[in-house]
Amino acid sequence: MSQEYDNWGPATRAIRVGHERTHEREHGEPIFPTSSFTFDSAAEAAACFAGEVPGNIYSRFTNPTVRIFEQRLAAMEGGESCVATASGMAAILATSLGLLKSGDHIVSSRSIFGTTTVLFEKYLTRFGITTTFVPQTDIMCWERGIRPNTRMLFVETPSNPLTELVDIEMLSNLAKAYDCLLVVDNCFCTPALQQPLALGADLVIHSATKYLDGQGRCIGGAVVGDAKLVGEEVYGVLRTAGPSLSPFNAWVFLKGLETLNLRMQAHSRNATELAKWLESQPAIKQVYFPGLESHPQYALAKKQQSGPGGIVSFTVKGGQEAAWKVMDSAKMLSITANLGDTKTTLTHPATTTHGRLSPEQRSEAGISDGLVRIAVGLEDIEDIKSDLTHGLARL
Ligand SMILES: *Cc1c(COP(=O)(O)O)cnc(C)c1O
User: Fold this and answer.
1) In whole angstroms, what is the distance from residue 314 CA to residue 376 CA?
2) Across 186-333, where does the E strand assignment appear?
3) What average pLDDT does range 289-310 have in this prediction?
4) Mutate which of 210, 339, 354, 373 to test ligand 1's pocket (most atoms within 8 Å of Cβ)?
């Protein structure tokens, strides 16, 4: 399907797509805080409800502000269709409900967001959908995990918090060979650094809460893909089950998109400098960051991403006590679970984001007690380093 923005570059799309001015001729995108929309006649209402004429009915289904965000993100990811959701988890749930049925099987990376693991293992199994978890980086393991009833391959690349990658193109070839859908959670890179659909993925998931917002304000999510899978199947779940995005949150996110390219470059720059510095610290055992030459998939990161992103993880010698000491000694950096904020955030995955996994699952996923995740923000890099020095010097 050709669009007016087909010839626009990525920065222009992020700033211009989706807004059709109303009769007020506003320059900024308007927020439509309305639950429902009106009709000139009963007949028009009936035609609209029957789907015979297009038009807004009710904000659980469509809302003009939400639609601007959806069209803009779809254009940035290079997808036909986008459905915005109330959270990133709602995006994964709506995708699962829309595209899977009882008896179906998922092959998922074992290195995915902790809550997604719980959704697959605890909740989807109740409805007859099972999941096999495989090591992210080994394509052979993905292939061995596939069964006759496998319908979906699910991955985040880079993964949280160890920044493991998968070759999206290779995985999409595997998905096609076995007639499965490839779903990529593009949270860490965003379309500014990586476009999974162009590499062969079928659907892209977002937690808009993270970099799309970029300033830690709102919860939201999105699914991007083609008109059938996303525009019909996932959208059908959304309008029926109801985890819709509020127009206010959509407006915050679409303003976030306008600066996404610039911010992702700046996050990548700060993170690269911090990762190199951390690698030189004697108290640190290992640094995980796709922009380091020591990263086992450095070459793949160079090929598949246009930047390394802003997430750096590291392990300290001395386990949980040492990890907590580094975090507690920081005076400026925030201890919080969110990522993708202008403010640098520190997380201890083993006791927070991955705390609901069993110790076996954690160790399989490589989440050790000495691991700290830094979502590098946009403060001056020297101030970030100096705040980490307080704790590192005490180890
Ligand atoms: C945060 C996150 C999610 C879930 O998003 P919410 O907006 O918190 O529901 C899913 N995937 C990844 C990679 C995340 O970081």
Assistant:
1) 13
2) 203-207, 221-225, 284-288, 311-316
3) 98
4) 210
The fold of 261-394 is Aspartate Aminotransferase, domain 1 (3.90.1150)
Ligand 1 centroid to Cα of residue 279, in Å, is 28
- Ligand 1 pocket (Cβ < 6 Å) reads 87-89, 113, 116, 156, 160, 185, 187, 207, 209-210, 219, 221
* Collapsed DSSP state (helix, strand, coil) of residue 289: coil
Q: What is the pLDDT of residues 14-69, one digit of tens each?
A: 999 999 999 999 999 999 999 999 999 999 999 999 999 999 999 999 999 999 99
Query: Would you say 367 and 161 are in contact if contact means Cβ atoms under 8 Å apart?
Result: yes
Nearest to 152, CA basis, from 200, 231, 99: 99
Q: Where in the chain is the domain with CATH 3.90.1150.10?
A: 261-394
CA 205 from centroid of its chain's CA atoms: 6
Q: What's this model's pTM, rounded to 2 decimal places?
A: 0.96
The whole-angstrom separation of Cα 348 and Cα 337 is 9
Q: What residue has token string 């100096």? A: 386
* Banded pLDDT at 89 (limits 50, 70, 90): very high
Specify the domain boundaries for CATH 3.40.640.10 within the chain.
Answer: 3-258
Q: What's the CATH class of domain 3-258? A: alpha beta
If residue 255 lies in a helix (H) or strand (E), which one and from where to where? helix 247-258
- The pLDDT tens digits for 376-390 are 999 999 999 999 999
Contact 171, 153 (CB under 8 A): yes
